[in-house]
Amino acid sequence: MGETSTWVPEGANQDREDFKVVGTWDHPGRQSWDMVSGAAKYPTDLWMEGTLTAMALRCPYGHAKVKSLDITQAEQIEGVKLVLTYEDEELASMPRYRPAYYQLGASPLLGDEAEFEGDEVGAVVVALNEEICKRALAAIKVEWEVLPFILDPREAAKPGAPILRPEMNPDSNMTGNTFGAAVEWEQGCAEDGFKEADHVDVVDYGRPMWSQFRPMPPAYFSYWANDPWGNPDGEKMCYVTNHAHFPSNGPIVSAFMGAGSHADKYRALSPYMAARYCDFVEKRGAQFAPVLSKRLGGVPVRYVQTRRESFDAAVPQTYLTVRIGYKDDGTLVAVQSENVHQTGARGGYGDKTHGHLVLPPNAQGFKQTVSPNIYSKMAYYVTNGACTTADPGQPQYEPVNLAFAKIADTLKMDVSEVIMKNIKVTEPSLSACMSAAKEAFDWKGKWHLAGERTLADGRLHGVSCRYAASQTWGMISYNINLRMGVDGKVYMPYAEALIGTYWPDAVQLVIAEEMGMKLEDVVVYYAPNYNNWQQGDAADRGSTCTWAAKEAAVLLKEQILAAGAAALGATPEEVDLVDSMVTLKADPAKQLSLQGLGQLAVGYCGKPKVPFQTDVIRTMNVDMCEVAVDPETGLVEILDYVVAHDFGKVIRPSSAIGQIENALTMNSGRALREELIWDESTGVLLNGNLYDYKVPTALDQPKFVPVPVETRCGGGAYGSTGVAHAHANPGLVGQAVQNATGGDFIAMVPYTPDKVLAALGKIAR
What we know:
The protein is α+β, with helices and mostly antiparallel strands. Helices cover 24% and strands 24% of the residues. Residues 37-148 form the Aldehyde oxidase/xanthine dehydrogenase a/b hammerhead domain.
């Protein structure tokens, strides 16, 4: 077994054992009724008197340059208010756009070269409504120069491939499409480790480009108004509505509007979000809307994308080849991993992004194993794709678990035993999750060697198991501001978009718990003019919000107790807050209402006291999957899916379980059906619609069994942690398919019938 060590994060509240509201009372989420009733307002729903609509010209080729534009007819269409081209002096003079996380690849806000099919290029139209915008765009006469394009990063890596963005790779000694130098990491000596191994195998794994499906296309809404709040010089304020990552948009918008880094001159209205990750890095809509609004004298402008255009924001491709060496007892002794990864046209997700700062993602998982010898290399390549969003999973665990499955298959071992043997830190989190998952799944009754079980209906039966960890990369500072009003209630404003994790509801529970307030006396409310650039909702970072809320609650409680003690003629140490009343500890019957005690306020900005990056494991989780494979059709059905997730401490039960269920819904789509397909001759997306791009519906959902585990080992409030991305990874389904068929591991997601039949030897590969 791996090392049995326990990590307890510094500053985590491990002392509180009895909870009145945290984890015990699951009130309805503040979003729930609005969303199911249709009352929720999304960016596409925002409208003010005089609102205009803006849309950009989109390139119909995989890579092309505008040779000439004629906008004469477009300008003459009734209802068109403005047509701007890339030759407009103001647009041309604006700072060049850069991806949020990298310094290369600067592009103009509106240029003459389209770097992927659907790219905004050449012209932008502002009109009375969307229909007139579309007519005007169709009336623009464009002469295109079609340029070479590359969709696959493996093709971009080949010597002699067309150089797509030479300025992005000025110093590399590799191919011209390399996005910076390859990222390498080594521990021990992999080649020496292979010499000691009893077995050496190779595991291949690939993910296609796929769409992070969103319920509706994104929209950006901006207007200008005389609003001096927080703005001493009284300049007009720009209100921008966009997705949940506004903290990185604010400085971008500010720079474009000539305000430098003074982002607080701009207010963000963030209503319900239907496109949290769409346009994640590009953010051009957030820039176009205020620019066009200002150009037209401050009138409201909505910048919109169509459903088809929103599909261009895709998750990038990646391909891994992992060579593993292991002993007869299943112990991993050597790993050599090489990854070819796609950054898209602008390097939105290159080697400086999304947790890649220390190790290549394919090394982060292997570093947690007992293997003393690891070599990892990850190269990032420019292609003609948008690739503007991140993979929502934790793909670093896919090759690790595929390696464990390969070891188990070769040595005819139980894969769960291989996992426990090879992971360094098993106690308490991994062991607890593994035990809980086995019991809920009936692992002992269902597990079998590959290809050894057939169901009564003739379908092949398969099961598999994997692990993943919640790590510290998401630990960023958050702002929490609390005030107590004259009515004795505690108020917390927020301005960030809500994307489904219900973090305001969770922090309400934490504040009430920590302060000793009745839950109804803690008022968490949306404040659109509340400018807070570092607050929000981001997947497994929700625990950071709870940490900040707890710390703020501690500070406000100290003030309240000081004021209440003075009124009771006692010291702060002699009183406590109990059910929203200042109570004398020695005589609980003596109480003081908070009403009229005075207005008190406190602010806290911080994060849990844990190291940054992936060297520290917060908590772990174990997934188990059961499938049935039809040997005649190749169709795969997920029969059972159990997730034992260590939440550290569950703050809000329905939020915790809901996050798991949402991730598994995404997982099932990615595993069995979702992939974007381009025409290799033109670079045009072929399935950018909801008819040809198949997302799972409620009728497609398999049986999901979430199993909460609480070890109190997380870095958030009361030892909580966020829900790991890893449940969205589709690889476990492929492992179960291999267990069912007894054939080769299927190297490429999704696991469609043709790939399954090929693994069974019934059709050619």
